[in-house]
Amino acid sequence: MKSNEFVKLKNSLALKSAFKIVAYSVICFFILVFFCDVFFNDILADYISNFDRGFYLWCISNKEFLLIVAFLIIIGVVSFFIIRKLNNNLVEIISAMDEILKNPENQIKLSYNLVILENRINNLRVDLLTSKIEADEANKKKDDLIMYMAHDLKTPLTSIIGYLSLLIEDKNLPSDLQDKYLNIVLKKSLRVEDLINQFFDITRYNLKSMPINKQQIDLAFLLNQLVEEAYPMLQENNLSCELNIPNSILFMGDGDKLARAFGNLLKNAISYSYKNSTIFISAEMFENKVVIIFKNTGDKIPDYKLDKLFDKFYRGDSSRASNTGGAGLGLAITKEIIELHNGSISVSNDDDFIVFRVELFFEN
């Protein structure tokens, strides 16, 4: 609840309670005075006078004091019942919160004087229910991916064991065949390493706890370095990469984290590009920001999938082969890193290209 709404509700309840205490006390006091003076004045006076003349005279001489005491007693009794009603409101609110935790599907109903709070609690209930559903879906995706990746591990491991067994058992294999088998073993071993790294991402990675250590870095140098490191992957997929960036882009950020973010975008572009095509990386500097764009030629992403690409454990192409499929964390990690740098990232289909646009804002 917003602070001004809370203060408004608090003041409203306090004013209503104070008004009720004063109003009920005054009404009760006048009823008491009227009741005593009109109906029981003579009878009560005679009774007290006959019972104890001295006490009767004391009551007469201290009439104002007795009226004040009676008024205070009335205030105390009225305050007790009104405060008890307020406590009932508090118990009602606590019960409502317990009900939300136990049965978030059920709508909460509070007393008429707590309508503002009732609306807010129901909004929280909906948010809690939505978060629970999203968490359950994320856990299910996570469990499914771990199961699939565990199955995927068997394939390269079986190949590694098979080819190593051939190399050990047949000592007379031609050297060219030995080299072929060793290259296959190396390739499968790298795939196993990649899958194990994805396991670490799934089981241990927590986006919200990622520390950011900012210092001045050159984004142009970082992008050039990433393209050089990706040269073997580009060659393997018959791809080329064209850079159109300034000579230097000085930016206050975490170089390691941004390298991971842009590396994920480049790896994603390589995985989804058509063979014998070119990946374009451009950067343009403005007064308050730098815009970095990754463009690759590949199958268009359906519109309904565009917003989901940055969700954890979501893979845009569920039919991808095991040797290229990832855990669905790369783009989610990229988005979190960019946002931790107060930037933004988006994806779109532009003519023949898939376009990822990153905006990073310079610090003042």
Brief account:
63% of the residues lie in helices and 13% in strands. The chain is elongated, with a radius of gyration of 38 Å. The protein has 364 residues and is α+β, with helices and mostly antiparallel strands.
What would you note in describing this structure?
Helix content is 63%, strand content 13%. It is α+β, with helices and mostly antiparallel strands. It has 3 domains: 3-102, no CATH class; 135-204, Signal transduction histidine kinase, dimerisation/phosphotransfer (DHp) domain (Helix Hairpins); 208-361, Histidine kinase-like ATPase, C-terminal domain (Heat Shock Protein 90, 2-Layer Sandwich). The strands form 2 sheets. Strands 2-4-5-7-6 form a 5-stranded mixed sheet. A two-stranded antiparallel sheet has the order 1-3. A hairpin with a 3-residue loop joins strand 4 and strand 5 (289-297).
